[in-house]
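User: Here's a chain of 257 residues. Predict its fold as tokens.
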Amino acid sequence: MPITTQRDRLVFFHDVDVIDRAPGALGRLAEEFEVTVPAYPGFEGQFDVLDRGWEGWESAADLAHHIRRSERWMSGDPVHLVGAGFGGWVALELALLAPERLASLVLVAPYGVKLFSRMDRDFEDVLLLDADEQITLGWADPDRCHGLRMPGYPADLSDEENEVAFAERETIARYAWKPFMHSRQLTRWVHTIDVPTLVVAGDADRLLHAGHSRLLAERLPRATYVEIPDAGHYPYLEQPELFHDALGDFYAQVKGA
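Assistant: Prediction complete.
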């Protein structure tokens, strides 16, 4: 079904290992929304922004504060916010900071919230995985992997591209090393995010603890959960039509409400 008859604004926060800021990477969503994909300081060669002040940031919350203050789309009508992986963490932080700016929230296998015990690993250590491990854990079918970027992968990266990839790994560590890939404050307050929310996960995602996304949806007061079959951590890339259909149903409900 068509998602909307108007070009509402959709903002997409990408993950940290699949970086494609072309709106077309979202497939049919880019045809139906006015899509913005913000850049993160410390990624894609943007290492001198803010006079390198971002080097003192310690979590995705810092990035959310920066986005709230600096992005022009934070004014005007509320936006539909979508965050994938690390981008889902940023989206959750922004939903805590400025829920009035969001018409809806879609979280795709997000990091950011620790839901299991102290001795359980909620998230695989993406900073230590090599490319083969990342693909095995992140994709239902490794042959469908595309868009992945990390040091040494793809094999034909130039020296300059590899240098950027290593610098981005350092940036991830600044945002997410301690505590790893989550925020204690967000974990404490995530249940207060009162925004229409869809949590999406692939049924073969092994980068997150089994059941993590489903449990997160249960913590959010206005969330529904959808699991995409035959998809890993990146269902919007691996099963784009099923992903689009899930969001289409969700946005139709939001608009109807």
